[in-house]
Amino acid sequence: MEVAKQIEKAKKGDQVAFTFLLNQYWNQVYAFMLKRTENQTTAEDITIETFSKAFDKIGTYNTAFQFNTWLITIAKNVHIDVMRKKKTNLFVEITNREDQKAYNIADTTPSAEDELITQQNLSRLLQCIKELQPHYQEVIQLRYFQEMSYQEIATTINEPLSNVKIKLLRAKKLLAEIIQSKR
Q: What is the DSSP letter of 144?
């Protein structure tokens, strides 16, 4: 009964309900994906994307089905998408001419131009991050620049692990929207 109430609240945009559902089902979806992928990072990323998609589309959830079954179905589809992307990246046709060019490369260190482009891209990214609210900036900085785990971030900012996961999820989504709007 409690889950059904929280789903209805989430459909109306209640953030507390989203947190409840994330806490309620995170371990189940993560364990399913970990068993399937046998990789903690991939399982975590797919689980995060699963909840992101589920929360975006929660209005389409059909109560005739179990909520966890709906989440697992989304997770399976996200995993299939990830596998397709990896598969297309693995098999790239290379002509003999391109193959020969690869062997003729003398120096693989970045040129001054490459370094300048990288610095400019990083500068643009940092500008976009600065447009986020401070609490989102903080979790992005801790996760991607200091490379902390979710648990380390939770300890650092003194918040529950589930809040850190939600904040990172939202921060990445907002950052993507900001970057997209500047193109």
A: I
Q: Are 132 and 175 in contact (CB under 8 A)?
A: yes
Q: Would you kindly state where each structural domain of the chain is located, as residue ranges?
A: 2-90, 109-181
* AA letter at 18: F
The pLDDT tens digits of the residues spanning 105-144 come to 555 666 666 666 667 777 788 888 888 888 888 998 898 8
The letter for the amino acid at 137 is Q
Q: pTM higher than 0.90 for the full model?
A: no
DSSP character string of 1-52: -HHHHHHHHHHTT-HHHHHHHHHHHHHHHHHHHHHHH--HHHHHHHHHHHHH
**CATH assignment of 2-90?**
1.10.1740.10
* Domain 109-181, CATH: 1.10.10.10
